[in-house]
Queue: 2 jobs
Job 1
Amino acid sequence: MGEQIAFGLTAAGIVGCALLVVLLKNAFQAAVALIGTLVSVAILFVLQHAPFVAFVQIIVYAGAIVTLFLFVLAYLGERALSDPDRLEHFEVFSWITILVITAMGAIVMFTTALPNFHTVPETTEDIGSPTALGFAFLREHLLPFEATSLVLLVGAVGAVVLAKRAVMAEGGR
Amino acid sequence: MIGTLGWIVLGLPLLGALVLMAFGAKEPPKRVTQLVGCGSIGLAFLATVVAFFSMLSEHAEERTHVSRLWEWIDIGQGLKVDLAIRIDQLSIMMMLVITGVGFLIHLYSTEYMAHEDGYRRFFAEMNFFVFSMLLLVEAANFVFLIVGWALVGLASYLLIGFYYDRPVAVAAAKKAFVINVLGDIGMVIACFLLVRELGTLDYDQVFALAPQFIPAGGGVALSIALLLFVGAMAKSAQAPLHTWLPDAMEGPTPVSALIHAATMVTAGVYLVVRTHVLFELSPLAMNIVAGVGAFTLLMAATIAIAQVDIKRVLAWSTVSQIGYMIMATGLGAYASGMFHFLTHAFFKALLFLTAGIIIHALHGEQSLDKMGALRKPLRFAYFAFATGCLAIAGVPGFSGFFSKDEIISMAAAQGTYGWVLFGVSTLGAFLTAFYMFRLLLRVFHGTEPEGGYHGEFHMSGAAMTVPVAILTVLSIIGGWIQVPFGWKKVTDWLEPVVGGIPQKVNADGTLTAVGHVAAEPSHNLEVITISASLAVALLGILLAWYIFANGPERRLRISARHPHLRSFLEDAWRFDEVYDETVVLAGRASGDGLRDHVEPKVVIGAGRGVQELFSDMARFMHQIQSGLVRTYAVALMAGLAAVAVIFILVSR
Amino acid sequence: MNALAHAAAVTGVPHSSYIGLSVLLFAIGLFGVARRRNPLLLLLSVELLLNAANVALIGFSRYWNNSDGQIFALVVMVVAAAEVVIGLGLVVAVFRQRRALDVDEMTELRG
């Protein structure tokens, strides 16, 4: 029963906060709502025998990414949008697309041929501990691991270049 | 050693051509051109002679040298083409003539062409021709043969059109090129068939495999032989693809002597001899070859009687003499054909070069009507020309006698069909003697043309007379290497290449001969045929003497009596007119039709359609490319949805 | 359905629930990407999409009983971090030039 209750609460948190993120007019409030989603997802990860990923989720997302968002929001401030929305007549396409993709997900889920998909999983192996992930990374997935570091490096360099250019555009050095 | 020499022989003229071409528009000093142009050919000749003598010291069976540089093309499926040359008895014989006669003609040209523009261009193209021709005869596989074949066609085109400011010369060059390409197509298709049947194009392999895998007398053998022969017909000006050769006389006279008399036009003979295994697989093809040769020799001989341009007479005579060679190869008398090729190269080059001296002396005049009684002023040319005439007419002791009579005797020995060919070729011999002495007598005897000659004769210097003198000597003694009832040096020499019958290995290991060997004429038969051809030759000379020796009255009277026959012969049996009516008019009509009806609708219409399609597309794209990022995002999502739908529908 | 499985179904949460949650979160993220005009909120919505993918990855990691899905989830997080850094950098740079926070205003790449 415990897992069911926990899942129900986190699922409600995830969906509710996500809806707030996309619906709230105020960007700052939306960013705060995102924290709720991310934390809920982290709890979900714990339920899923992935404690390490859950911690990383909290540290990287809630700790770093959202903080960055909030910082930029504070820096830029709130801006009025130029009304009206020029893409009003496109809205129907986005709705259709969203519904189709959701429907597809539902169809796949209910008709899937995967065995035991609709039953409760039996976790027998250690799949989520730092030890297990460390072995997996360094034994089987070394290439993605190294590629990841490269992506981070590129991101860092890109951020520095953009920041530098922005400073120079304002007359600084 | 001999292989290396073969590459050197091949490389020198190419080097010469490249060096001369490298001067570009800048005309180098004449000395340089002469040195490079003649030097390369002369050195090539020396190398050939060295190769020839070292070949003489070898055992007869070991005289074939294949020198392979590297693998040139690997098409897969086992079809490989090597960059390789093959020097054997047959190719060295061709090489000796090409470089030897070629050198003499180059030497001659240094003076003959001295007053022409494009001196460097002439020698560059001549060297290029010699290179191409050597490539043709030295090739060790069919691919190189075709490359050389096409390159000599190109050289011939360039040199016929040497005076490119004369529309006639340009038209003649185009005609030669087009007809030669017809032949190339035949050869290429023949090679396709060889690849399909045998999977190789290497001479050794083809000739070894062909008797085993191509059924003798079958349709494939006939197709291959006839398609190859189409190439030979086009290059060697055999009916009905002969019409380009007389027109090719628009080129400079040394070109006519080298390319359109001595060497290139005999490439067809070389081809048949080289690929004789393929021809022997199909007796019908052999008979067709012999028949075409016989028809051509007779037809060209009759036409030569009525021509008034000195070079055209010689051109038709060339067509006729190659007809003899082709007929000999068709009979299986390959050595006889090659022997006639050898002597013909001497005396026909001699005749052309002497004609060049005459034309030179008369400041470019080529019409027989403007000549006559030149015996005294041009004494040297007279003797040289007379020697050539005696040789080609087959007067005993001169080279043409030995080679031509051998062909005629061989024809007589080949059964009923052979007797028909014997009759035709004997008649041809009579006509040959007649038209050659007509030419001789009209130029050197008779009376001066009306109004006499204007100005001084332009006398030739040593560079022109020495080659002519050498060729005169060769025309006399050249035939003595193969004497009836005596010795047969050419036949013995070529025996390892052309002798023997292709043999098929049966399943039980026994051998079956396919094809046939030409029967040797018996002693008595040879006596009879030689007497006969000798008699008709003398008859022809006497008839010519009767009509032409004393001024134009008698000849005009006779030709006035047969105006239709005369114009028919003068128009060369009206082959050109027939081609105009059938091929050219039809081609032009179809071209006009396509231009008026197909092009505006299909071609231009399609172009417009495509253009409109694209501008419509561009207009549509322009609207989509709004720059609004969110529409892109929605489009991306829609694509994702579409892919998901497809996945689900497919996986169901 | 045997007794044991039935008991598990009572006490636990089936796989399909996690995957269904992932689909739902993805749909919400899509809505955000399609409807928000503020570039910062667009990026927030992209984060939702990435999280939806992560939820599915973790769910399948458990389903197959091995760590591969978690490994990929971590890689996705790294990509997300890099994307946010670059994305926010661009937003700030554009803002300094245009003084606007509306993706519909940025149409220089119009065809």
Note: The CA atoms of residues 214 and 228 of chain B lie 15 Å apart.
Job 2
Amino acid sequence: MKYVKSYVPYHSPFDPCPPIGKKYYRTPPHLYMTFQPYNLPQFSPQEALKKGTLWPALYDYYENPYDRRS
Amino acid sequence: METNLPAEYYQLLEELQAVDFVLVELTLYLDTHPNDTASIQQFNHYAQERKKLKKAIESKYGPMQQYGNSYSGTPWDWNKAPWPWQV
């Protein structure tokens, strides 16, 4: 759950629906990396194939943040 | 006729897949970093590696591509089973 942030939307007292509570949004690493620096450490080819990227600095897996609440 | 392929076939193909992925990543990286000689050396290394792998696979299991990208066996065998989606 590294690159995930959350916020709580305002819930009005006149809102008939129950409050949503926490909402999550993703901030993957490439947002914070303007120009990819040189000579970043790399995964092995097999691991890179599994993880979907050659560089650990850019690795961002998906984990459903809403699963834990239910 | 059910001819299951040897485990080595899958292992070689997985290796080829990993090398191909590295080449894709490096190509995209080098598009924006043209002067990164270390990565260019790595790219050429993996390109050479892929050629060796392709030769090894095709010598055992027949051509992988067509239109001159692979040597053909005799008789003309690029369309013989198993196809990639059947494997």
Note: The interface with chain A takes residues 14-15, 17-19, 21-22, 25-26, 29, 32-33, 36, 38, 46 of chain B (CB under 8 Å).
